[in-house]
Amino acid sequence: MDYIVYACPHCRALNKLPKKDSYKKAVCGKCGGNLLENKPISLDNYDEFQKITSSVTVPVIIDFWAEWCGPCQMFAPIFANTAKNYPLKAQFVKVDTDKNQQAAMQFGIRSIPTIVALKDGKEIDRVMGALPEPSFAMWADKIIEN
């Protein structure tokens, strides 16, 4: 049977689950949190960022942002709302470039917001700027379906 590895949005513990087209219920083995409640995980610690982005087997969609950035603030609810549509299909991650400069340097982030998609720990696509919700949802669909 195929499995996916997914980080709990509540406690960040890695969970191994049987791969299915849809899930009625999925709970974290560590904290008991609902894994279907797909919300972005803030990864401001580089070691934790490395662990999750290299271990998760579904696409990882990263929002590189900063607190002082107006377009980043405008895009944040769009990112969070879109994440809700992909439970266990993609891991949504937020990286504050001021707090996790190593991750920003690793991906050569020069402007924010920048959204990077990873598959199997490798970058497969990126977009720069705050996208409107329909455009971001179409981009996320393309990432997740491939």
From TrEMBL:
Signal peptide: none annotated. The keyword Ligase does not apply. SUPFAM superfamilies: Thioredoxin-like. GO terms for cellular component: cytoplasm. Keywords: Disulfide bond, Electron transport, Oxidoreductase, Redox-active center, Transport. Pfam families: Thioredoxin. InterPro entries: Thioredoxin, Thioredoxin-like_sf, Thioredoxin_CS, Thioredoxin_domain. It comes from the Bacteria. Belongs to the thioredoxin family. This is Thioredoxin. It comes from Lebetimonas natsushimae.
